[in-house]
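[Automated response] Your request has been received and processed.

Submitted sequence:
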Amino acid sequence: MTHNRADAPPSRLTLGALLGAAFHMLAAYHLIFIATVAAPFAFDVIGTTLLELWNASHRPNAIINLASDGVFLALYSVFLVGLNRAALIGPDAVRRPFHFSFGRREWLTFAYAVALVGALSLILLLAISVLSMFLGRNFFAEGLGVIGGAVPASAAFNLVCVLIAVRFVFIFPAIACDAEFGWRRSWADTRGIAGVLAGIVFASLMSVTILKFGEAQLERHYVALGPVGPGVVRVVFDICYYYLEAVGILAVAMAYRQRVGLPVEQRSR
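Generated structure:
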């Protein structure tokens, strides 16, 4: 198919150009966002509410929490595949809201996402273990929250994790457009642009952090909002979080398209 200007990648592979193109695409094709976010957003809101009610009346169950995270990540894979296909193939590749299939692309996206999160978690646990050994403190027993205040180098560990993770993010757009993918392929394709990709991640994280700070400030005034107000506020902020994540996903997809291109069968559509 012929790509319109709204879903075309920027001519320059820079942070500003990629984020600008992603914002422009979402503004032009806002139904894409609605179609891809509907299922994970609905589960996020309903599932989180039910889980909070369960934990309030029962002892927190790690298995239930883990199962909830797994279902959410599976639905988030639908969101991820849909946005990547919209950026790489075109808006027509995205189904209507709640009309989706969990097929090969979604399963692969889910599996690689679990593997990547698991690997980064192991790196983090290893770093915490090393810190505990050299500083003579058991951060696992004291609580991981004390690391930030006790060890300024924790920011460096987060930076290293992001720089490692961004070398593998091209796996997901490659899966979405049925191109060649893999750990080694993504590592090779992202060589030289890790800084730009990390900038996209940090821009998304900073935006979400600022929004979360605003949401935390509003929580102090929940009583004045009435019985329905807190729920409305949560939904509005959740939509904002997903929108910012969508911008980041589209920016990475456009970087992939600019750097790697599309398979021949996709270019001919």
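Summary generated for your ticket: Residues 143-151 have pLDDT under 50 and may be disordered. Residues 18-267 form one domain.
If you did not submit this request, please reply to this message.
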